[in-house]
Amino acid sequence: MPGKIHKIGTFSDWVGLFNEWRKEVGVDHDQIKDFKFDTLYGAIETEEITFGYYKGRNKWENMRQIPTQNMRDALMNLIVYQGDTEFASVEQQRWLFESAPSDYDRSCLTRVMIEEMRHGWQMCALLIDFFGDTGKVEAKKMLDRRAYENKRLLGSFNEECDNWLDFFAFTDFVDRDGKFQLQMLKYSAFAPLGRSMSYMLKEEAFHMGTGNTGLARIAEAGVVPGWLMQKYLNKWLSSSYDLFGTDNSSSAQWAYTWGLKGRYDEPANPHAANLEDLNDYNRHLYRDECAILIKRISNAQKAGSTPLYCPDIKFNRNIGRWKQQFFHPQTGQQMEEKEYRAELDSWMPNAADKKLLMDIIGAEKKWIAPRLGGRDPLVTIGEVRKNAINAVQ
């Protein structure tokens, strides 16, 4: 694709690149090709800014209303990072169609991919419509980067996701981080961004539900060993913790002060924000939610199985205060490096684990319990869009 269009002038130019990107990464299946992608805006709770320095003023509708260039740059950066994750996840999961455990699961994968692409489409529409030539350049770059070339902006989105245990853990936990990020952006002082989040959040709910029920079905079947499931939970949850950003982040502080991105529980939280602890505050809310979900998944296992657990927030971290330190995933106890290195293969999936998993999936037709009572995801895909304020292609 690079070299076909060096500069985009309109959103239609970008759509042409988007269509070429789908073909290049191998996801231009008929059901995806035939889907009508839209830019969707929903309602926001209030037209007033609800936090930060500009609290009480009207939300901004365009760039001219945003007070400073620094604020405009920070806003664009938030949109770029969000959009990059959407296209990256499609690239990560592009080879899973042929190995789907059922037609229902294949339809789930197709819907997840369609909606992730639509989220990326939405972010690129904002960049092109509001951020001038710089926004157009950034929208094009989103389709130039590749997860499988390790060029996506965030670490989780360069990881391999090439089997269905990976997929279910990713959609349950990485997409759950996505829910947290989208909810925080929904409170943004930039009204078009907040309105963009309404439908993205509704669509994201399906992704998380797909992952959560998928993991519960694997636990219920009891064919994939619990210890192997635990390794994949450790892989994706520890990676997801990093997605919230560094501790004491000046970027997070300014984003909050300027009203660009709130806390996850912003409207319900009566306390003043601790600006030095914003990312870690949201990270702990996320882990608390995941711990409840993993307990439910664990309860789906056969009687007598070892309980699954949510890894400690300090385990296997690559950014922040716990970066490259050594903590036990279950107890959170700090360890000596030598002891930690010796145990790491028992906590994180390695090549032998992947081979075992693929052997199980290939040989055991009942490695995952059937999905009972689920409606066709490609029939229900349009339901979340019925009340969009406007839909512009």
Number of helices: 13
Q: What would the CATH topology be?
A: Ribonucleotide Reductase, subunit A
Distance between the termini: 22 Å
CATH class: Mainly Alpha
State the order of secondary-structure elements, H for helix, E for strand: HHEHHHHHHHHHHHE
Look at the structure and name the CATH superfamily.
Ribonucleotide Reductase, subunit A
Oligomer: single chain
How much of the polypeptide forms β-strand, as a percent range? under 5%
Radius of gyration: 21 Å
Please provide a written account of the structure.
By secondary structure, this protein is mainly α. The protein has helices at residues 11-25, 30-33, 69-92, 103-130, 132-144, 164-186, 191-221, 226-242, 250-257, 278-299, 337-343, 351-363, 377-380, and strands spanning 39-41, 390-392. It has one domain: Ribonucleotide Reductase, subunit A. Helix content is 53%, strand content 2%. Helix 1 (11-25) runs parallel beside helix 5 (132-144). The radius of gyration is 21 Å and the shape is globular. The chain starts with 10 loop residues before the first helix and ends with a strand. The mean pLDDT is 94.
Keywords:
393 residues; mainly alpha; Ribonucleotide Reductase, subunit A; two-stranded antiparallel sheet; 13 helices; 2 strands; 53% helix; globular
Give a nutshell description of this structure.
The protein has 393 residues and is mainly α. It is built from 13 helices and 2 strands. It has helices at residues 11-25, 30-33, 69-92, 103-130, 132-144, 164-186, 191-221, 226-242, 250-257, 278-299, 337-343, 351-363, 377-380; strands at 39-41, 390-392.
